[in-house]
Write a structure and sequence with these properties.
The chain has 376 residues and is α+β, with helices and mostly antiparallel strands. The chain has 5 helices and 22 strands. It is globular and about 55 Å long. The two termini are 33 Å apart.
């Protein structure tokens, strides 16, 4: 393009003219909205001047603080590795050990910090553990339980709690490592998750090295009925090697939109030639949808670099307006897992869903925050 642009500016390449155990406590937000806005401005300025992520200590905020400062607050925030608000010091997830079926909540080490992996290690020593709940940090109560007996109902099982360890900012943590027959769900239609044609967006940090072509490694808005209820009933990020309509280029994995009755690489059933694979160990994937006319898909290496816009344009035919139902799915498609099981594989480190249609500036700042977090 002829204009000189700063790093992390949007790179648009296509356009067309169930009860939760315990309460999730969350302290009053701090810093204030003014401080959060200042931090977001500082991120933007430093990126523009230096062309690289700023040190973590300079930001002092989490992804959900950045979304809120842009007018698109998080209505669900999930992670097994870190807090997604600068002030959040509560529980991140729950593990259950096989020796006696006892459970333990694993929290953040500090406000805005990483998970207390040592607490999990101590609790699970000498036995095996699974992750039963991923708690919602947003205060809306949209915690995710596994879709199986003892969870939120269904036919799946909880994911092994120790399949993958990593470091974030030099501190050890565990991922939510999804294999076939693992998945998580929440009916959030009365607790803030957008429904119908209301605008929304979401992001997740996943892995380009643990994927398959099974249906469907999704994170986002899904059916409360857990049935395939037609076009527009879903609005979720899909990350996989699944080629739904055919004609795909390469082997993936790709960031696509699961809008129900199809995984969309762009605005039609034809393969979007501007799609590209993301094979790095850590991948940022984003999706936003204004509910009536437009949606956008982006991806990036989660350790560094720009968000690449893979598609920004019209909704596919038959998906205008959207008919979202407001459940949250993680690790499976929308018509799972009552009487059937999840077939997908994928890794989930963190993610959030927001109300509204965030600006490119906001999404770029979230990517800076993720890259600064220090995934290794």
């Amino acid at each position: 393009m002829p204009l000189i642009r700063c790093p992390f500016q949007e790179e648009t390449v296509q356009s067309s003219l169930v009860s939760v155990p315990g309460g999730v406590s969350r302290g009053r937000r701090s810093p204030t909205a003014l401080a959060t806005g200042s931090a977001l401005m500082l991120i933007a300025v430093l990126v523009a001047v230096f062309g690289r992520p700023v040190p973590a200590s300079a930001a002092g905020t989490g992804p959900c603080d950045i979304y809120a400062s842009g007018g698109t607050p998080c209505v669900a925030a999930h992670s097994t590795v870190r807090a997604l608000f600068g002030s959040y010091a509560g529980k991140l997830y729950q593990v259950r050990r096989s020796s006696d079926n006892a459970t333990r909540d694993i929290g953040a080490l500090t406000a805005g910090g990483v998970a207390n992996a040592a607490a999990q290690d101590a609790f699970c020593a000498g036995t095996s553990c699974v992750i039963t709940w991923v708690y919602d940090q947003s205060g809306h109560g949209n915690s995710l339980g596994y879709q199986g007996p003892g969870g939120v109902g269904g036919s799946d099982t909880a994911a092994n709690a120790t399949s993958e360890s990593l470091t974030v900012g030099g501190n050890r943590a565990y991922s939510l490592y999804i294999n076939p027959k693992n998945s998580y769900w929440r009916d959030g239609h009365t607790t803030g998750v957008p429904t119908g044609s209301a605008p929304e967006a979401m992001y997740m940090v996943t892995s380009g090295t643990h994927v398959n072509s099974g249906c469907c490694f999704d994170y986002g808005n899904s059916e409360t009925t857990r049935k395939a209820d037609g076009p527009g009933a879903m609005d979720a990020i899909n990350f996989s090697t699944q080629c739904w309509f055919g004609g795909c280029s390469g082997n993936g994995p790709w960031v696509q939109a699961d809008l129900e009755w199809g995984l969309y690489s762009g605005g039609s059933q034809s393969w979007n030639p501007n799609q590209r694979a993301f094979t790095s160990k850590f991948v940022t994937a984003t999706l936003k949808n204004n509910g009536t006319s437009r949606f956008a898909i982006k991806g990036s290496n989660a350790q560094s670099g720009n968000l690449t816009t893979l598609y920004a344009g019209s909704l596919p035919s038959g998906y205008n307006p959207m008919k979202k139902q407001g459940a949250i799915i993680l690790g499976s498609g929308g018509d799972c897992c009552n009487g059937n099981t999840n077939l997908s594989a994928g890794t989930f480190y963190e993610g959030a869903m927001v109300s509204g249609y965030p600006s490119d500036q906001t999404e770029n700042a979230v990517q800076v925050n993720i890259a600064t977090a220090g995934y290794r």
